[in-house]
């Protein structure tokens, strides 16, 4: 609206100026014409001389003409006065228009000022709109933040509720653990009482055994005296037989009163055997050897600023029992839990002399020392909260493979128990090449999976426990090992069978795994099949010889690892060679 009013004012001003200019020009033209007529009359004031009539007419004409001119002049003067009045009117109007124009200019200046003020107002409005938009954006952002905070608060409330439930569950578990601890304490007291009774019974048994052994020694002395008596009697009989008949007759048949009291009549009547000791003929001979070494290429880890080299956490045991030999291997799992080496040591050190035949025996045996182990190591770990937390939460992990060799006359039986992937192998050496008669694990694919392990804080899984009994042949070798060296020995045996076109389930699995990509056992099987041993008996003998000293066994393990036949792992091996009395002298 302001722009339209300004344009109209300009148009009115322009029209007024044009009209004033036209009136001024018209006034100037009328004045010029009037000035020309006046100069012409002034130049000819009277008619020219002539006759009177002509003069009169001329005068008359001149008078009329003068009157007409005077009338015209009066008319023109009136017009001029009118024009002057009109000019003055136009001048007034022009002045009025000028005043109006000045007012218009003032109005225009006011309008420009208003425009400037309006522009500032628009800028202020734009700034206000921007501030409003920013305020709305900030409000929206705060609304989103409030929504996020509300969600977080809800999540925190849920976490708090879950923590409360977890705390209640933990309290229940603690109560249950305390109850079980009380039961375990009672069971431990009962176990200690029974252990004291067993120790007393064992002492009594030992006393009785010592008495029996003394009696056996006396019997052996009597037997030796009888043997000497029989030899003397035999010498006398031979001397009497060498005499003439008439002299020998009285000696051969002496009267009953003269018979020697120390020579029993049945022994005289029967042929006297050659003197020999019956005990070695009934007692098998065995030789047990074992070693444990760290892996050839050992690794380290950082414990704060110190560099710690990883320790061998395998443990083994070979000990004599009243009826035979106890041997065991435990592989501590260094990658999980804490104090796995100490746990493996506890497992092999606390094995009883009598065989563990099943899950009930295993659980009862573990209950006898798990709590003491946990208390002792937890107290040791309290100086380091991180270790203590790891020990309490994860526990300790280890495998176990154990065997009990028992004599029964000239025979030997092997009762064994295994939990995890530590191998137990039994070879029959009565033929030319050793034959595998018992094997744990019974499948090669077990070595491709993570084993199930014994832990002091959890119950053993029934499916993971394997146990059995093997009647050993006259010449046999029993092998207990950690997983790496045990797998190596089993694959060497199967590679030797493959070279001799042997058959069997393990050999078929070996061929199948060697053809499958991605299997660790398959890759090891490929390496063994590519370089089979010339004879497994030589391989077994070489391992047995290396067990004589720890450096010799470490050198053999490093050589097999460098050849790509043995994994870079801690190696623990026990070999027990059994020879019966009739085969003890055979090669």
What would your notes on this structure say?
By secondary structure, this protein is α+β, with helices and mostly antiparallel strands. It has three domains: 1-200; 201-279; 280-293 and 309-581, 4-Layer Sandwich (Phosphatase 2c, domain 1), CATH 3.60.40.10. Helix content is 60%, strand content 14%. The protein is built from 14 helices and twelve strands. It has a five-stranded antiparallel beta sheet, with helices on one face. The chain has a five-stranded antiparallel beta sheet with strand order 4-5-6-7-10, with helices on one face. Strand 2 and strand 3 form a beta hairpin. Helix 1 packs antiparallel against helix 2 (52-242), helix 10 (483-499) packs across helix 12 (520-530) and helix 11 (505-515) packs across helix 12. The chain is rod-shaped and about 245 Å long. Residues 244-282 have low confidence and may be disordered.
Specify the CATH architecture of the largest domain.
4-Layer Sandwich
User: What would CATH call the homologous superfamily of the largest domain?
Assistant: PPM-type phosphatase domain
Beta-strand segment tally? 12
Largest sheet: 5 strands, antiparallel
Number of helical regions:
14
How many discrete structural domains? 3
- What is the H/E order? HHHHHEEEEEHHHHEEEEEEHHHHHE
CATH topology of the largest domain: Phosphatase 2c, domain 1
Secondary-structure content class: alpha+beta
N-to-C terminal Cα separation, in Å? 129 Å
Looking at the structure, what is the overall shape? Answer: rod-shaped
Helix content: 55-70%
CATH C-level label of the largest domain: Alpha Beta
Low-confidence stretches: 244-282
Give the strand content.
5-15%
Average pLDDT level: 80
Strand order of the largest sheet: 1-12-11-8-9
């Amino acid at each position: 609206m302001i722009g339209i009013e300004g344009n109209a004012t300009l148009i009115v001003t322009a029209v007024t100026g044009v009209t004033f200019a036209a009136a001024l020009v018209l006034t100037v033209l009328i004045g010029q014409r009037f000035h020309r007529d006046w100069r012409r009359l002034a130049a000819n004031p009277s008619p020219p001389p002539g006759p009177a009539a002509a003069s009169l007419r001329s005068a008359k004409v001149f008078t009329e003409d003068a009157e007409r001119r005077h009338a015209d002049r009066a008319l023109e003067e009136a017009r001029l006065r009118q024009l002057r009045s009109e000019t003055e009117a136009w001048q007034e109007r022009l002045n009025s228009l000028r005043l109006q124009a000045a007012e218009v200019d003032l109005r225009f200046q006011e309008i420009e000022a208003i425009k400037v003020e309006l522009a500032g107002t628009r800028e202020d409005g734009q700034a206000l709109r921007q501030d409003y938009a920013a305020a709305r954006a900030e409000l929206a952002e705060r609304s989103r933040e409030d929504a996020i905070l509300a969600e977080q608060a809800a999540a925190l409330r849920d976490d708090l509720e879950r923590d409360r439930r977890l705390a209640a569950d933990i309290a229940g578990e603690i109560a249950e653990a305390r109850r079980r601890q009380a039961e375990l304490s009672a069971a431990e007291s009962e176990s200690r009482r029974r252990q004291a009774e067993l120790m007393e019974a064992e002492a009594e048994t030992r006393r009785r055994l010592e008495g029996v052994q003394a009696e056996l020694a006396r019997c052996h002395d009597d037997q030796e005296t009888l043997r000497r008596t029989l030899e003397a009697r035999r010498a006398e009989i031979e001397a009497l037989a060498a005499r003439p008949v008439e002299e020998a007759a009285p000696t051969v048949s002496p009267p009953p009163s003269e018979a020697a009291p120390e020579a029993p009549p049945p022994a005289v009547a029967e042929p006297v055997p050659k003197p020999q000791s019956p005990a070695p003929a009934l007692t098998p001979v065995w030789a047990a050897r074992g070693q444990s070494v760290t892996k050839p290429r050992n690794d380290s880890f950082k414990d704060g600023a110190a560099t710690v080299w990883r320790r061998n956490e395998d443990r083994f045991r070979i000990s004599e029992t009243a009826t035979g030999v106890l041997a065991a291997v435990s592989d501590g799992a260094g990658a999980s839990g804490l104090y796995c080496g100490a746990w493996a040591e506890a497992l092999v050190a606390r094995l009883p002399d009598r065989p563990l035949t099943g899950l009930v025996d295993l659980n009862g045996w573990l209950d006898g020392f798990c709590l003491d182990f946990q208390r002792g190591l937890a107290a040791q770990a309290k100086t380091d909260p991180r270790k203590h937390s790891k020990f309490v939460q994860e526990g300790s992990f280890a495998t176990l493979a154990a065997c009990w060799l028992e004599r029964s006359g000239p025979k030997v039986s092997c009762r064994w128990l295994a939990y995890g992937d530590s191998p137990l192998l039994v070879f029959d050496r009565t033929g030319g090449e050793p034959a595998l008669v018992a094997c744990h694990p019974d499948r090669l694919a077990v070595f491709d999976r993570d084993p199930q392990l014994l832990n002091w804080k959890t119950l053993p899984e029934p499916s993971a426990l394997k146990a059995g009994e093997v009647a050993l042949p006259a010449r046999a070798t029993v092998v207990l090992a950690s997983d790496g060296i045990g797998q190596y020995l089993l694959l060497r045996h199967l590679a030797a069978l493959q070279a001799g076109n042997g058959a069997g389930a393990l050999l078929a699995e070996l061929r199948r795994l060697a053809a499958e990509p991605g299997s660790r056992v398959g890759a090891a099987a490929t390496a063994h099949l590519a370089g089979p041993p010339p004879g497994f008996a030589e391989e077994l003998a070489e391992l047995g010889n290396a067990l004589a000293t720890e450096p010799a066994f470490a050198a053999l393990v490093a050589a097999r690892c460098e050849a790509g036949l043995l994994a870079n792992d801690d190696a623990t091996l026990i070999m027990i060679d059994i020879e019966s009395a009739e085969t003890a002298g055979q090669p």
